[in-house]
């Protein structure tokens, strides 16, 4: 029997999207669905985790708490996506196990919609993927810092990276990333680590899709883990927080909705 979780439900309005993303992104798994009474935000928590602080925080943002219900992944994941979709040009994400006829030159990532961030749906993941396609050349070494589901590490390997290390401080994410690497038949070194604490060696590219404040902390150590002329690809930055990266050499930038991604030379 699959594990049971709980969903904390709130009445949702589109004008609150930016505030909700900034508060929840990288911290919680959540989705928005339509109901007969309007849009509903569902935040997924383990059964034993208290929801009191979460409810207070989101009510302060202007959302109305409407209830809590128990669910299993197979219940709430149906509300997200089950069919393959093109995350970026020539990169298809298959959340199931579909028999796909894939045209030559396209990449398929088998990434179930699960309880680790990185399904391919979020703008921040898409921007990282676009930058990886642009800057990653076969034979490069890549570090995925805060790997979540492992989607960017797996994409890096399929783009031709030689060595790929994927780290996350969340044991659940580490477990999921390992499973996804096996599912995609790629060799990715997945390990638990607080940022660089369990990382050794140097890389051509460090990619990190986490919250802006943590990215700033990571940049303080990143140079030790970069090869000469290496690049850092950062995403998960609410546009209003771009000022945190002033003073760094930004060689490329992308914006999708309220989110920004950067390519930095250190």
From TrEMBL:
Protein name: Ribosomal protein L11 methyltransferase
Protein task: Methylates ribosomal protein L11.
Protein family (similarity comment): Belongs to the methyltransferase superfamily. PrmA family.
Keyword annotations of the record: Cytoplasm, Methyltransferase, Ribonucleoprotein, Ribosomal protein, S-adenosyl-L-methionine, Transferase
Gene Ontology BP annotations: methylation
Chain sites annotated for binding S-adenosyl-L-methionine: 125, 146, 168, 209
Catalytic activity: L-lysyl-[protein] + 3 S-adenosyl-L-methionine = N(6),N(6),N(6)-trimethyl-L-lysyl-[protein] + 3 S-adenosyl-L-homocysteine + 3 H(+)
Gene3D superfamilies, A to Z: Vaccinia Virus protein VP39
Coiled coil: none
EC numbers, comma separated: 2.1.1.-
Signal peptide range: none
Compartment(s): Cytoplasm
A GO term for molecular function: protein methyltransferase activity
Lineage: superkingdom: Bacteria
GO CC term, one of those recorded: ribosome
Entry-linked Pfam families: PrmA
Principal location listed in the UniProt entry: cytoplasm
Enzyme superclass (EC): transferase
